[in-house]
Amino acid sequence: MGQKNQLWWDLPPQETFLLNKEIYEIEDAAYHKTVSELVKLLDISKILTVPVRKLSLGQRMKCELVAALLHNPKVLFLDEPTIGLDVVMQKVMRDFIKTYNEKFEATIILTSHYMDDVKELAKRIIIIDTGKILYDGKLSAVIDKYARNKILTVTFGAEPNQRKLAELGEVTSYQFPQAVINVKRQDTSQKASTLLKEFPVADLTIEEPPIEAIIREIFSGKE
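Structure (tokenized):
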């Protein structure tokens, strides 16, 4: 997936599918089975006879996927598969990629600048900078290795002592009744306990920093 299209612009998607069937020499039974499964997964049965030029970007992306997957490739390279899509279509595309991976047991290599793609789809990630591999391993291990802080989001039932609050960690934002505080990972339990004991806390959540922030840490060489 990328910026190049293989669908014939003035013809319906199903015509491109038939052309690819012949190019890949797919038997009739296998072709119909695969098309049926992919069309169902992507919910595009109603647009198969509509000229490509009349389809939305999201609809074209779905049809591009079908055309690319007719021959059931064992290795699939996806370059920015959600680029230009709205948030609803991004989720649809991610759900499809995940389902396809599980159903057809294909290896998927995904290139993306969207961290949501990475978080939702990748178990193993490779971070490359100017041709050098900075990290190769599990996504979960990146967080454990590079994330120095955790984020405490606190909702107060009454106005807290802001000076005392600042002693707990870095208060990155405060607008009553909510405050966001960065604390060192190893101090998270102790800081959360202090908040609950000494402040009028109505609600408290503890989160990992955004994956974007962790990636910035890696690229900046802060280890």
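Residues 148-207 form a domain with the Alpha-Beta Plaits fold (CATH 3.30.70.980). The beta strands are 75-79, 107-111, 124-129, 132-138, 149-156, 170-175, 178-184, 201-207.
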